[in-house]
Specification:
- The structure holds two protein chains of two kinds.
- By secondary structure, chain A is of the alpha+beta class.
- Chain A folds into three domains: about 110 residues, Butyryl-Coa Dehydrogenase, subunit A, domain 1 (Orthogonal Bundle), CATH 1.10.540.10; about 90 residues, Butyryl-CoA Dehydrogenase, subunit A, domain 2, CATH 2.40.110; about 140 residues, Up-down Bundle (Butyryl-CoA Dehydrogenase, subunit A, domain 3).
- Chain A has eleven helices and ten strands.
- Chain A has a four-stranded mixed beta sheet with strand order 1-4-5-8, with helices on one face. In chain A, strands 2-3-7-6 form a four-stranded antiparallel beta sheet, with no helix packed on it.
- The radius of gyration of chain A is 20 Å and the shape is globular.
- Chain B is an alpha+beta fold.
- Chain B folds into three domains: about 70 residues; about 110 residues, Beta Barrel (Butyryl-CoA Dehydrogenase, subunit A, domain 2), CATH 2.40.110; about 140 residues, Butyryl-CoA Dehydrogenase, subunit A, domain 3 (Up-down Bundle).
- In chain B, the strands form two sheets. In chain B, strands 1-4-5-8 form a four-stranded mixed beta sheet.
- In chain B, a hairpin with an 8-residue loop joins strand 6 and strand 7.
- The radius of gyration of chain B is 22 Å and the shape is globular.
- Chain B starts with a helix and ends in a 20-residue tail after the last helix.
- The chains are: A alpha+beta, B alpha+beta.
Chain lengths: ~375, ~400
């Protein structure tokens, strides 16, 4: 049976990440950064990735990683969600790393795992695991890539892109460094996750996975990303609940704390219940990914369709139940709302994941 | 500390001494109790071995594999889930020895005499009076929504012993002999047609003081133990994916393509995910319970379960086409246990309406979560310092 709790090691990991993020990624710092020339905190990223070794948590020690598992990665994501920290963890330590792991690459992986390089997986962030292999980028017989990919997470700061492209022999996964690549920063709804449109013009590349492997490797990377994103969503939701509960205890109207009104209490109780379920699905997905059981696709689809909706509901409730202050720029709630809404679209909407379940669970459409 | 292997060995000894194939059911159950394999986390001598609670699964699995009879836990759920933990915690040694064994084997069925017509969600307002008379108490009042009272040998009973103090203080908890003079049980017919519950009228019932659980005036604290365990019992069993109602609805969907519509498909997928999430949350809760005590999280699971059952049974009727217009049986049946899966969709739909009322309404459960888990302040309590007898009613 899957262990859906957190181990002591995982709790220790959570504590050290939370303490770092509390110190380095407080709300006013994060907010100020969203409108600065450096929206990502690369110093914080180096601490997380290189000093704490979190970029390579799920990478085997033989490939320069920590030899832990996706269970631990999920715990880090919960904390990153909780603080909406502006670092390229999802793009580099999750998506690009999972793609390299799936492709069996031994060259780039140690450098990403050690935090020396930042990677990004060059697909639109909305791509759902199992989507048709992208055809927007072509590889010629020399392996030069041309084409465009819109809305790529964390490409803005990436040293290396993992690009799915169609070559003369079929689909492939390619590693591309800077030459011949134009990365145009997009203005993102989620101010704490950077997006960019990538254009490749005869960009030189190295083949990571050929036609036999590429589709499966891409699917595995997206599956891991979607399953782990659920934990980020749990972190967002938990922050929203905790913060709203704290506010409703100290906000007085009509001569009593507004948190004593049943109309508000019941909404928070419902939210608590949703998060209870969401956490169970996210833990199950992380555990399934870690052990590589056959049930991974179902676990991930259940976690994504649950946690996306719960994170969004939590963020929307946080804004509403904070009243006027929740609508302001100066209050943190908006950053969580923007992250939650963007995460709803990221790596497959809840509806698309449910549609995937129709096939996985043999519940055919009308 | 006993291990799973120790317990397997003890199950082996039990089976060798009392082969299920050639042993009378009751005799086997009594032997199982005496071997400490009834509820392994209970103390030795009371059906347990002081073993970790989660090891019960090992025992149950071994016994099921050997084809051993069980104690029909759903028939005696109130005894197992509510009366027993309360007796164990607050009972005297004499009470432990007298009641727990026949309770567990099902020889004596237990019911719960808590709710009253005037005390539902506000249970602490209850007014069934117990007046001391020497070494007895004389009890008069009316209880309602009492499952299995008509087959019960005993009831766990909360009474008002001091009307002059605020409501939470003046209560006392008893074990009531359901065969005692003055106990009258009448069926309470519900919207499904059957009478699963009863009204229980208590008219001058004499209860010996030795049947008291906990101190005089401590009834509310004792009742809290009962109620916390009730909510753990609900939603507390392990099940596979598509276990329970969702499996039935999913099978109908697969078997009857002519009933499918896109809108029902959306609903089905949402509920399938919700059922799976609730199943995983229950699993996670049991993993937490295995390392700790029942907490208020049980209330949350009960809330989830009620919502899910109601949504699923509603969908099932829609999925039934013209059969959704029919009903299987309106006669006044007296079932000993709820048979959700054995009845028709109409019954399931109607019976599920009770899921958000029985064992704490969903509204009260939300208050419990908000106040005890999230720590939100309570509504102003206007009756907190008022003597029970002076409460408006």
């Amino acid at each position: 049976m899957s262990d859906l709790l957190y181990s002591e090691v995982e709790e220790d990991l959570r504590a050290s990440v939370r303490s770092l993020l509390t110190d380095q990624a407080g709300f006013s710092t994060v907010l100020a950064r969203t409108e600065s020339a450096e929206p990502y905190d690369l110093k914080l990223w180096r601490t997380l990735a290189a000093d704490l070794g979190l970029a390579g948590l799920a990478v085997p020690e033989s490939l320069g990683g920590q030899g832990a598992s996706y269970r631990e990665v999920a715990v880090v994501l919960e904390e990153l969600g909780r603080s909406v920290a502006p670092v390229p963890f999802l793009g580099s330590a999750v998506l690009a790393t999972a793609a390299l792991l799936a492709a069996g690459d031994a060259e780039l992986l140690p450098r990403l795992a050690g935090g020396e390089l930042i990677g990004a997986l060059a697909v639109p962030l909305t791509t759902i695991p199992g989507a048709a292999f992208p055809s927007g980028v072509r590889a010629n017989s020399e392996g030069a890539l041309s084409g465009a990919v819109r809305t790529v997470a964390d490409a803005s700061v990436a040293d290396v892109l993992i690009v799915p492209a169609v070559g003369p022999d079929g689909p492939g996964l390619y590693a591309v460094e800077k030459t011949g690549v134009t990365v145009a920063e997009a203005l993102s709804l989620d101010s704490t996750r950077r997006l960019a449109d990538v254009a490749l013009d005869n960009a030189s590349s190295r083949l990571l996975a050929g036609p036999e492997q590429a589709e499966a490797a891409l699917r595995q990377a997206l599956t891991a990303g979607a399953g782990l994103l659920a934990s980020e969503q749990v972190g967002i939701a938990q922050w929203c609940l905790d913060e709203t509960v704290a506010y409703l205890k100290q906000r007085y109207q009509f001569g009593r704390p507004v948190g004593s009104f049943q109309a508000l209490k019941h909404r928070l109780a419902d939210l608590y219940l949703e998060i209870l379920s969401a956490r169970a699905t996210a833990r199950y997905a992380a555990d399934a990914l870690a052990s590589g059981i056959e049930d991974v696709p179902v676990a991930v689809a259940v976690a994504q369709s649950t946690c996306s909706a719960v994170a969004l509901h939590a963020a929307e409730e946080a804004v509403q139940l904070h009243g006027g202050i929740g609508m302001t720029w100066e209050h943190p709630a908006h950053l969580y709302l923007k992250r939650a809404k963007s995460d709803e679209l990221a790596l497959g909407t809840p509806g698309r994941h449910r549609a995937a379940l129709a096939g996985l669970a043999n519940l055919p459409p009308a | 500390m006993l291990t799973a292997d120790d317990l397997r060995a003890r199950v082996g000894e039990l089976l060798a001494a009392h082969p299920p194939g050639s042993t009378d059911r009751l005799e086997f159950l009594r032997a199982r109790f005496d071997a400490g394999l009834a509820w392994v986390h209970y103390p030795e001598g009371l059906g347990g071995l002081d073993a970790p609670r989660e090891l019960q699964n090992v025992v149950d699995a071994e016994l099921a594999e050997a084809g051993a009879p069980d104690n029909d836990p759903r028939r005696i759920g109130i005894g197992l889930g509510m009366a027993a933990p309360t007796i164990l915690r607050f009972g005297t040694a004499e009470q432990h020895n007298r009641y727990l064994r026949p309770l567990w084997t099902g020889e004596e069925v237990w019911c719960q005499l808590f709710s009253e017509p005037g005390a539902g969600s506000d249970l602490a307002a209850l007014g069934t009076r117990a007046v001391r008379d020497g070494d007895h108490w004389v009890v008069t009042g009316q209880k309602v929504w009492t499952s299995v009272a008509h087959i019960a040998r005993f009831g766990i009973l909360v009474t008002r012993t001091d009307p002059d103090v605020p409501k939470h203080q003046g209560m006392t908890y008893f074990i009531c002999d359901m065969t005692a003079p003055g106990v009258e049980v009448r069926p309470l017919r519900q919207l499904t047609g059957e009478a699963e519950f009863n009204e229980v009228f208590l008219s001058g019932v004499r209860i010996p003081d030795t049947n008291r659980l906990g101190a005089v005036g401590e009834g509310w604290r004792v009742a809290q133990t009962t109620l916390m365990n009730e909510r753990v019992a609900i939603g507390g069993t392990a099940m596979p994916r598509e276990g329970g109602l969702i499996g039935m609805v999913a099978r109908t969907w697969r078997d009857r393509p002519e009933l499918r519509t896109p809108e029902l498909h959306d609903q089905l997928l949402k509920l399938w995910v919700e059922a799976e999430a609730a199943r995983l949350a229950g699993q996670r809760l049991r993993q937490q319970l295995a390392v700790g005590a029942p907490g208020p999280e049980g209330s949350a699971m009960k809330l989830a379960f009620a919502r899910l059952q109601q949504a699923l049974t509603g969908l099932e009727i829609e999925l039934s086409g013209e059969d959704g217009l029919r009903y299987d049986d309106w006669s006044l049946r007296r079932p000993e246990k709820v048979d959700m899966l054995g009845r028709g969709p109409g019954y399931r739909y109607l019976r599920a309406k009770g899921n958000s009322i029985e064992g704490g309404t969903s509204e009260v459960l939300r208050n419990i979560i908000a106040e005890r888990v999230l720590g939100l302040p309570s509504e102003p309590r206007v009756d907190k310092d008022v003597a029970w007898k002076d409460l408006p009613r």
